[in-house]
Specification:
mainly alpha, about 85% helix, about 90 residues
């Protein structure tokens, strides 16, 4: 589990990658307050764009969205699913 946490943190290096993730997080929070699944999904897609950007910029496989997929299964995706379920069931 600590290996996945380390990989998860490594996937979020780079200034512009972090800025893209913060922008995506802002849209996710906006989606939570507006109870909009579409905004939450848009925010998540923007955050994934940060991974594509970092991989494109560096060419390093450790920044590849595919490399970051497994650690995100443990940390990001469960939270993302809970947020969507919260929105669906509290409308």
């Amino acid at each position: 589990m600590t290996t996945y946490l380390k990989e998860f943190i490594e996937c979020h290096e780079g200034v512009l990658n972090r800025i893209i993730h913060i922008a995506g997080l802002g849209i996710i929070v906006w989606g939570i307050f507006e109870k909009s699944v579409s905004l939450v999904i848009l925010g998540a897609l923007i955050q994934e764009g940060g991974h594509f950007y970092q991989y494109w910029k560096t060419g390093d496989k450790k920044y590849s969205p595919w490399f970051c997929f497994k650690p995100q299964l443990f940390f990001a995706y469960p939270l993302f699913i809970l947020i969507i379920l919260y929105i669906i069931f509290t409308r």
